[in-house]
Structures are given as structure tokens and as C-alpha cells.
Design goal:
Blueprint: H1 3-21, H2 24-39, H3 44-57, E1 60-61, E2 64-65, H4 67-88, H5 91-100, H6 106-119, H7 124-141, H8 146-155, H9 158-161, H10 169-178, H11 187-196, H12 199-214, E3 218-219, E4 225-226, H13 243-265, H14 273-279, H15 282-303, H16 308-342, H17 344-355, H18 361-376, H19 379-397, H20 402-419, H21 424-433, H22 437-463, H23 468-489, H24 491-494
Antiparallel strand pairs: 1-2, 3-4
Keywords: Cell membrane, Membrane, Transmembrane, Transmembrane helix
InterPro entries: Na/H_Antiport_NhaC-like_C
Domain Na+/H+ antiporter NhaC-like C-terminal: 161-462
Length: 501
């Protein structure tokens, strides 16, 4: 077997097993072990040493603690504990009783999930955790299936973050853009221009609104239609108390924004909000916001009469519930390190230079980045590799296509990460929504492919120098046409009539 094929083997094993066995943790473990064996030339002792090394590096590397990873894990534990506190104490039920008098249909509930995702815009992982955990019990009450909730959560997390310079993605991407010496505009201007042509992210947000409005169904693995069942209110519903849930959530949102800006303001002497965001410590802000909101939740529940013993039991249950997601997240980080050491991303980028035609440059770059992000499960890793390489290729081939190529890199990376069964956001969207990662990936894929098809048409039209207005007509028309075709020829999957409005 050639070295190139041998390097790709762990990825193929991971993806095939994840889709076949429906056991993401097993698939990731096989991928990590096979990659370690290849890197160590099939020496078992060296392979074990390598595994211990990359495992330790996720927390401590080159004399420094990896605070981003540590902060994400602590935030996950705190969010898991907080949501169990709210669920087991009856806070969510009381919020539902209060909400019952204001939300009358499944449509309103689904739109609410989307809008909450838009409010929690700071980070993709943060959005997946917060929206999924908080909306899961509410979704059960209003007839939203778990796979549908996972789709709405995932589709309004990373795609939205990729469009906003004020999210955690903005400073990271702008730093990569600033490294391109031939960039004709500032990094912030380039980010905005790139976001305006991120056809996949924009189409995905639009499709999620359509799915939420019409309540189109999801097919389960055993080929039965997952139709939402109407939930009838009781004859005399209680008034409910929204504040036991609303105050912790508002604390979480306000503290996230405030602490993010504060951490950046400590590093920048001027009153420049964009500079604050560029210097902000997103991980620490996310951790501290989760800690503050958890403490607020504990205080509120104690004041409401819940005993300390029950609160401690709720905290332990929350840690147990989130342990599986943490295990998968750790494995995704480890397999990312294995993939990087195997040089798979660089190999795919080298193939692009050899085989991409100038007439297909933008659309081809979208497909290449989609494959890389799908295989690696990392949009940020694909950004790091392909923004410099894609920019260099476009600069050498046709400088007028520089920004469209960078848009294609962003869009393809988000699409690939959105569909990947080893992506942290895919896994967290599923687990926080209460469904299996495999089920989420399979049921989300048709809608992601609609967005990708529309984006592919748009990028090819840009490559052909079609006017921007007609490009957007092509993107929107393609997305709606594909959705109509799927509804017409595969109604069990998309039948709006099978859902309650």
C-alpha cells in the first residue's frame, strides 16, 4: 500500500465505522489506534507512548496548560450540571407552564429554538451546548423530535459564527487573513466581504427557518417517519414561574457577552470593540459565565425550597449525563492530532495545486475544503491549512478571485464540519439534544446537501464572473428547487403534513 493511502486509512476507518456501527466513540477509538500504529511503524510500545503523549498534550503542551481545552471541558461540566439542576428541580416544567400560555403551536416552539441559537452567537460549541441542553425538555413538551432539535441547534451554531466578526471565530479567521501579504483590504473588511459570499452558511440559516416554520419531519433509522405529536394543554394549567429558568439563562447570555468584552478590554487601552474581541479570552469567558450561571441556579433553587442533598444529587447526575459527550470530545481532539501528524490535510492541499482548473477554481476549492473538514471533523483546522494555501493559489491564478476563493474555503469548511460524524459540534448538538450522533448526522445530511448544492452553483457562477444579483438568484433558486424536488419525490422525509403546526 502506498504511503498516501496508508495515511488516509485511519480516516476511512473512522468514518466508515461511525456510519456503519452508529458508535462514534468506538469509531474514534479505532481511528486513533490505527493512526498511532501507522505513525509508530506498527511498533506497539511506541504506539502506546505516542497515544499517552498526544493525550497529555490536549491538557499540557510545551510547558503550558492548554487552557482552551480545559475551559471547554469545565464549561461542559458546568452546563451539564446546570441543565440537570433546572430539569430535575422542576424549573423547566414551571417555565413550560408559563410558556404554555404564550406559545400555542409547535411552529412557535421551533422558531423559538432558532431565535435562541441566534442569541447565543459567541461560539459554536457554546451555542450547541447551551441551546441543546436548555431546549431539550421544552422540545419534548412541544412535540419537537430530538433529531429535529439537533438539526435546528447545529444549523444555527457554526454557520452563524462563521458570518459574525464579533463571535469567537472572527478574531481567529481575521488573524489568518492578516497573514496574507497580498490581501487588498484590511482583515476586518476581508472577513465581511468573505462572509457576504458564504453561500453555504447563509443558505443553511435560511433553510433552518423554513424547516422550523413548516415543521418538516425527519426519518428515523428504521424508516419510520418521526412525526411530532401534538401536546394538549391540561384543562387548568398552572401559572408557572419563568424566572427559575429565565434568570440563569439571562445570566449565562449577559455574562458571556460581558466577560468576553471585559477580557479583551483588559488587553487594549482604547475603546475599540473590535480590538477587544480580537484580544478576548473566549474560553475563560465561557467557563466563568457557566460558573456564574450555575451558582445563580443553585441560589435560586435553594431559595425556592429545594434541599442541599437534592441539589448535590442533581449536580452528580449532570456530570454523569455529560460524561459521554466529554469522552467523545476528547477523542475528536486526539484524532485531530493524529490526522495532523499523518499530514492528511497537507496532502489534500497539494493535490489541489496539481488538479484544480482555473475555470473551476472557486467551486473546486469549496469541494476540497468540504472533504478536508468532513474527514478531519474540524472547520478551524481546515481554515488554518486552506486560507493561506487557497489565497496563494487564487493570487497566482486570478487575483480577482481571491476573496471568492476565501469565501469558498470558509463555506466548504463549515459544510464539511457540519456533516462530519467526528466533528465536535455535530457530536455536541446531538448529545445535548438527546439523540445519537449517528442519527443526527444521517437526518441532517439531506438538508446540508441542499445548502451545499446551492453554494456550489453560486461559487461556479462567481467563477464565471456572473453579476452578484444573478448569483444570488441562482443560489436561492437552487436551494428552493432542491427542497421542492425532495418534497415531491421523497415525501416521507420532508412531509410537512406529518407534523403539527
Amino acid at each position: 500500500m502506498s504511503p498516501n493511502l496508508l495515511a488516509i486509512l485511519p480516516l476511512l476507518l473512522t468514518l466508515v465505522l461511525a456510519l456503519w456501527l452508529r458508535r462514534t466513540l468506538v469509531a474514534l477509538g479505532v481511528g486513533i489506534l490505527s493512526g498511532a500504529l501507522i505513525i509508530a511503524h506498527f511498533d506497539i510500545v511506541q504506539s502506546l507512548g505516542y497515544l499517552l503523549e498526544i493525550g497529555a498534550k490536549q491538557f499540557y503542551c510545551q510547558g503550558a496548560w492548554q487552557w482552551w481545552h480545559l475551559n471547554v471541558l469545565m464549561a461542559m461540566l458546568l452546563l451539564g450540571s446546570m441543565t440537570q439542576l433546572l430539569a430535575r428541580s422542576g424549573a423547566v416544567e414551571q417555565f413550560g407552564d408559563w410558556l404554555y400560555r404564550r406559545i400555542r403551536t409547535g411552529r412557535q416552539a421551533r422558531i423559538g429554538v432558532v431565535l435562541l441559537g441566534w442569541l447565543v452567537f459567541i461560539d459554536g460549541i457554546f451555542s450547541c451546548l447551551a441551546v441543546g441542553h436548555v431546549c431539550q425538555p421544552l422540545s419534548q413538551r412541544y412535540g419537537i423530535r430530538q433529531t429535529q432539535l439537533a438539526y435546528l441547534v447545529d444549523s444555527n451554531a457554526s454557520p452563524l459564527c462563521s458570518l459574525l466578526p464579533f463571535s469567537s471565530w472572527g478574531p481567529y479567521v481575521m488573524a489568518l487573513l492578516a497573514g496574507l501579504s497580498f490581501l487588498p483590504v484590511s482583515a476586518l473588511e476581508a472577513f465581511i466581504d468573505v462572509a457576504l459570499f458564504n453561500f453555504y452558511a447563509i443558505t443553511t440559516l435560511g433553510l433552518s427557518l423554513i424547516m422550523a416554520w413548516f415543521g418538516m419531519g425527519f426519518r428515523s433509522i428504521d424508516n419510520t417517519v418521526l412525526a411530532a405529536e401534538p401536546v394538549e394543554p391540561s384543562l387548568t394549567p398552572s401559572q408557572g414561574n419563568p424566572w427559575l429558568l429565565a434568570i440563569p439563562m439571562l445570566t449565562l447570555l449577559c455574562a458571556s457577552v460581558g466577560l468576553t468584552l471585559w477580557s479583551g478590554a483588559q488587553q487594549v487601552p482604547s475603546w475599540d470593540v473590535s480590538a477587544w474581541l480580537a484580544k478576548a479570552d473566549i474560553g475563560a469567558a465561557m467557563r466563568d459565565a457557566c460558573l456564574l450561571s450555575t451558582l445563580v441556579t443553585l441560589v435560586l433553587l435553594m431559595l425556592s425550597g429545594r434541599s442541599i442533598g437534592k441539589l448535590l444529587a442533581d449536580l452528580v447526575h449532570g456530570v454523569r449525563m455529560i460524561a459521554f459527550a466529554i469522552a467523545i470530545l476528547l477523542c475528536t481532539w486526539m484524532i485531530g492530532a493524529v490526522i495532523q501528524d499523518l499530514g492528511v490535510a497537507s496532502l489534500l492541499a497539494a493535490w489541489a495545486k496539481l488538479y484544480l482548473s482555473p475555470s473551476l477554481l472557486v467551486a473546486g476549492m469549496f469541494l476540497l475544503c468540504a472533504i478536508m473538514a468532513f474527514a478531519t471533523g474540524s472547520s478551524w483546522g481546515t481554515f488554518a491549512i486552506m486560507i493561506p494555501i487557497g489565497g496563494e493559489i487564487a493570487h497566482n491564478m486570478d487575483v480577482s478571485l481571491l476573496l471568492p476563493v476565501l469565501s469558498a474555503v470558509m463555506a466548504g469548511s463549515v459544510f464539511g464540519d457540519h456533516c462530519s460524524p467526528i466533528s465536535d459540534t455535530s457530536v455536541l448538538s446531538a448529545t445535548s439534544s438527546g439523540c445519537l450522533p449517528h442519527d443526527h448526522v444521517v437526518t441532517q445530511l439531506p438538508f446540508a446537501l441542499i445548502g451545499a448544492g446551492a453554494a456550489l452553483v453560486g461559487f461556479q457562477l462567481v467563477n464565471l464572473s456572473v453579476a452578484t444579483l444573478f448569483v444570488w438568484f441562482g443560489v436561492i433558486g437552487t436551494a428552493l428547487g432542491l427542497l421542492a424536488l425532495m418534497t415531491r419525490f421523497y415525501p416521507p422525509w420532508l412531509s410537512a403534513r406529518s407534523q403539527t403546526s
